[in-house]
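The authors assume throughout that readers already know how a fold can be written as discrete tokens. A single example would do more here than another paragraph of explanation. An entry of this sort, consisting of the sequence and the corresponding backbone structure tokens, reads as follows:
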Amino acid sequence: MTRPTSGLAVTALALGLAVAAGPAATAAPGAPTSTPLAAAPAPAARSLGEPLVIAHRGASGYRPEHTLAAYELAVTQGADVIEPDLTMTRDRVLVARHEPEIGGTTDVVTHPEFADRRTTKQVDGTAVTGWFVEDFTLAELKTLRAEERLPLLRPGSARYDGRFEVPTFEEVLDLRARLTRQSGRTIGVIPEIKHSTFLHRAGLDPEAALVRAVTRHGLNTRKAPLWTQSFEWTPLVDLREQHGYRAQLVFLATSGGPYDLRAAGTSRTYADMLRPESLVELARTVDVIGAEKGLVIPRRADGTLGEPTSLVADAHAAGLAVTPWTFRAENQFLPVDYRVGTDPAAHGRLADEVIAYLRTGVDGVFCDQPDLCVEARDHVLAEEGEGARAAG
């Protein structure tokens, strides 16, 4: 099934073509093309309030990702927002999994009754072999149990393998409401629609299902604590134009370019779309740029943390917030100068890395260990308070 191209999606494609007339990027592939922060204009006011701590797949540094237990722990640790990645079952139910392929995040390999479901599919132009959510009904998927994706790096989380089901999006929304009541804080939710083009080609419509779900839960309003995100551009446009979505939208960006635009014959890159003139156009549809953190502060050739780009200032000037990802405590994921010891699984100085990013003015951070990011935010807010008192 091929999804019809909406009017706004055509506008988005035109935006990509217009950007092609701009100056060619000279940075290495995937590197930020913005100018240094020192040369950028002063940022506009943040649109999200104080920086949000976003629980990336839940407290995924401590529990198997995308489980109700991971989301609940994240809120206990002080996270403001929980993030479920969404894909769909054969009977059209949205569920929380990082990818359509579930061989690495569930115990499906131990279920002989599903051995014949193992197959190879093209996901965004790449051959992927395994078991796919859209080949299972919800009832079948509920017989599986979640497993830690990185057991060698996170043995503590792996001890919880086999305990938790794959949750539906409805169950995540129910949990969000309960955690809001229990915590006395408004807990947000930031679902990501995964591989929308792939799902539409399988005859599924995740955008329509998402809008139905958030509307039932009273979240389809402009001021709701709801942000929907995608690495593809067309799903975000379609949510607004075709499905009556009213809450906030997040355009995710990394190296390369959106698959939906490439599939439509428009080979625009994320770097093209993050140029200052393009950000103004994006702001007509979306509210936030969810940038891979290297687009905010790249690393130097030796692996140490470098200097900020102008992305935060450029986005703020266009009226967009910026929420970089992903902050992880293990040495393997940290800049060289923030590591402690040589064990890749040992925790380094994550809080200090997050502090460096918060000082650039980002509006939120995606964290696998939310407690450490809350610690970093508290430090920066105290620092800003002391500075304001000194200035007064």
Remarks:
- Residues 213 and 317 are 33 Å apart (CA to CA).
